[in-house]
Write a structure and sequence with these properties.
Elements lengths: L7 H17 L17 H12 L3 H13 L7 H29 L7 H10 L7 H11 L1 H9 L3 H24 L14 H4 L1 H14 L9 H27 L15 H18 L4 H12 L1 H23 L5 H22 L3 H4 L3
Helix pairs in contact: 1-3, 1-12, 1-13, 1-14, 1-15, 2-11, 3-10, 3-12, 4-6, 8-10, 10-12, 11-12, 14-15
Length: 356
């Protein structure tokens, strides 16, 4: 983003996405809190609704990146690999090693360099770093994605989104409700290349930023919110149905339907924030705060798991044996704030600033 023409709505999106990424990692103290209530109860559905809603976070980061990078002038492969990808690889290596040392500190590992290298290759030392791995793949695909979106008419963007909704939303529902997943469509018929996150969400960002006039189509915002709420409720219903059918409610095993409508969820958040930012005046003081928070979101992301674990081990597990929603909000905000302060301080150091 150019300093003289900063698009503040991207900053707000990044802050919101970062907050909900943290919430997504709060386990029984937040994201999976719904499982502590009776299946089918009001609190069960209410808290699950929030957990499914938060799944827009990572897709929104990829959508923002598509809006920012896919319209840029062509860059050489050398520039992409040495400037963009290398930066992420260095960041990933440093923080994977930090989390490896933390595992040693906890007594879960003994120091062994080959073990670290193998775990780094597998993405083992912090499972939440999967986004950095997928972002490297996305950056490597930039030249191809740029060529694709710049030569695609708006009607074909719509066609592509419809195909993705059919593949990622409608078909899983039909296969579960009608066939109870005993009969699955032939895998060769799925258009997998357009359903991948590193493809569809950057394309969505490019479309919403350069092909879709939000002021011209502002009436679609309440319609999108109605659709978004209905689809999240549907995801809640399907999840509860599966829990009842299987009698199993684990954090990983219960999420089959959490992301099936994330394209709609992400699109709704994007157009809503963009519209209001384009049509309201924000004081410079608030803009500066938003900009500062936004510029620290990468640092917040890489530190958040470490800080969350420390708070959980030393505070929550000792003093809050019965989690509640209030604890969740405080927990998430505390992690966000501590990681922001750490990143803000580190960004004052010239060498470290370059990787953030």
């Amino acid at each position: 983003m150019e300093n003289n023409n900063r698009r503040l709505y991207f900053d707000i999106m990044k802050i919101l996405a970062c907050f909900f990424v943290i919430f997504n990692h709060t386990g029984n103290y937040g994201f999976f809190l719904f499982s502590t209530y009776k299946t089918g109860s009001f609190k069960f559905f209410l808290l699950m609704f929030l957990s499914i809603f938060c799944k827009f976070a990572v897709p929104l980061f990829l959508t923002i990146s598509g809006a920012l990078l896919l319209n840029k002038q062509e860059e050489s492969l050398k520039h992409i690999w040495l400037k963009r990808i290398l930066k992420i690889v260095i960041l990933l290596t440093i923080f994977s090693f930090i989390y490896y040392l933390y595992e040693i500190h906890l007594g879960n590992q003994a120091f062994n360099l080959p073990t670290f290298i193998k775990g780094f290759y597998e993405g083992k030392w912090n499972s939440q770093f999967w986004y950095l791995y997928i972002f490297i793949a996305y950056l490597a695909s930039l030249p191809l994605l740029r060529t694709f979106v710049k030569n695609l008419d708006a009607k074909y963007f719509y066609y592509m989104f419809i195909l993705v909704i059919i593949a990622r939303s409608i078909m899983p529902i039909v296969q579960y409700l009608v066939f109870n997943n005993t009969t699955i469509v032939n895998d060769n018929m799925i258009i997998k290349w357009i359903t991948e996150d590193i493809f569809i969400y950057p394309c969505l960002g490019y479309f919403l930023e350069y092909k879709f006039d939000i002021n011209k189509h502002k009436k679609i915002i309440p319609i999108m919110w109605c659709i978004n709420i209905i689809t999240i409720i549907l995801s809640c219903y399907l999840t509860s149905l599966k829990v009842i059918d299987t009698g199993i409610c684990t954090e990983k095993g219960s999420q089959d339907f959490f992301n099936i409508f994330s394209l709609i969820n992400c699109s709704t958040i994007f157009i809503t924030i963009k519209y209001f930012c384009l049509n309201i005046n924000i004081k410079n003081t608030i803009k500066n705060i938003i900009t500062s928070l936004s510029e620290c979101t990468l640092g917040i992301y890489v530190f958040q798991y470490l800080i969350a674990l420390e708070i959980k081990i030393h505070i929550l597990d000792k003093y809050y044996s019965t989690p509640n929603f209030g604890t969740t909000i405080i927990y998430t905000l505390t992690i966000f704030t501590i990681c922001y302060i750490i990143t803000l301080i580190l960004k004052k150091i010239p060498i470290i600033k370059k990787i953030f």
